[in-house]
Amino acid sequence: MNTPVWPPPGFAALDRAAVGVLLDNWTGTYTVPSRTLYPHQWSWDSAFVAIGLRHVSARRAQRELESLFGAQWADGRVPHIVFDRAAPPEGYFPGPDFWRSPAHPASPAVATSGLVQPPVHALAAWLTFQADPAQARRRGFLSRLYPKLVAWHRYLADRRGVDGLVAIVHPWESGMDNSPSWDDALGRVEPTPIDAFRRRDLHHVQAAERPTDTDYGRYVRLAADYRDSGYADRLDDAQFVLLDPMVNALFAASEAALADIAAEVGADPLPHREAAARVSAALVDRLFADELCHAYDVPARRLSPERTIAGLTPLVVPDLTVAPALVKSALGEHFRLGQTALLPSYDLTGAAFDPSRYWRGPAWFNTSWLVWHGLTRHGELDHADRLREVTLTAAQQAGFREYVHPFTGEGRGATDFSWTAALVLDLLRSAP
């Protein structure tokens, strides 16, 4: 019996190119998502980057996460942006002057935002450790990072907890900024007038691929209100409080990873296993309906009817009871796994579907990677291999773009995007 060769010879150039993007975007302590559109450090970007970077340099992948957690707030939150002092202040909006983090007593010495992003970090830390356990032990990587990860998860559970799940207070915290799942909730928010701020994203990407001015005005309003509250997490008073399936799936998966990390560093893994089980059960109980997980609008007390890729990502959770239903949904008419260039970010049959606009239809490499990881975890290897194949083909065709048209595979958004390169590299270097 012949042993399959992986990566296949036809992907050797793609492998080299992915490594090149990660090396080019490395700053010395972390990797920028994009040299043009995103010139700072982003929270969940760094976690995904570490997953791929571990195949190039395990030490550099460790440094990626250590750098991010060096900007952790005293209350445990991991900010969604850590600003580079050397980057031009006009290069990104909203920049450090908007967030005013130094005025907050819990903030770190470096300027950051006050929002957070999905908690994929413990999962990334465990995968990074596995790339070179001996070196990680010599450096004390997990023993130093473990208490920071515990504090991060405690912040989410204590300050953002709603009915056993974690709430977000801004669309940016979901990572899926412009998802149709937020439309109804954002309709309650009075937008900041567009002439009151200057968007920088449209200098680099076509307007048709980005959120509208009205949506951006609502994002700015919510962010300013949260900032002006002192980042106080008063969920009862907030206009926008939602339970997102991907945020909670990654919280559960990362608690499971924290159990493994705890065992490695000599701590008790049982509290993390119990937390993972509780979040998994609450996720199914509160967010699962019609063979998919949906966002829940806390002030309105209702599930969003919209079907998005976030609803499939709970496959990353071990022992998920509804995994067969999610696989069925992935294969069905709404997402058509294996029949498109990548898994679309939004329902292909949905009323708000737009194949080019940010998170309203385009396909992203990180969410497809999460579904691939989940399919593998649940033993759906044929479907996982098919998703890997179309993902790599999309990267060959479009390059390392931020996202792609779900049918044609044509690239959209930023170029030389770091997590695209990193996750393509992980798919290439992980045995089938």
Automatic annotation (TrEMBL):
It holds the Pfam family MGH1-like_GH. InterPro entries: 6-hairpin_glycosidase_sf (IPR008928), 6hp_glycosidase-like_sf (IPR012341), Glycoside_hydrolase_63 (IPR004888), MGH1-like_GH (IPR054491). Keywords: Glycosidase, Hydrolase. GO terms for molecular function: Glc3Man9GlcNAc2 oligosaccharide glucosidase activity. It comes from the Bacteria. GO terms for biological process: oligosaccharide metabolic process; protein N-linked glycosylation. Residues 38-420 form the Mannosylglycerate hydrolase MGH1-like glycoside hydrolase domain. Belongs to the glycosyl hydrolase 63 family. This is Mannosylglycerate hydrolase MGH1-like glycoside hydrolase domain-containing protein.
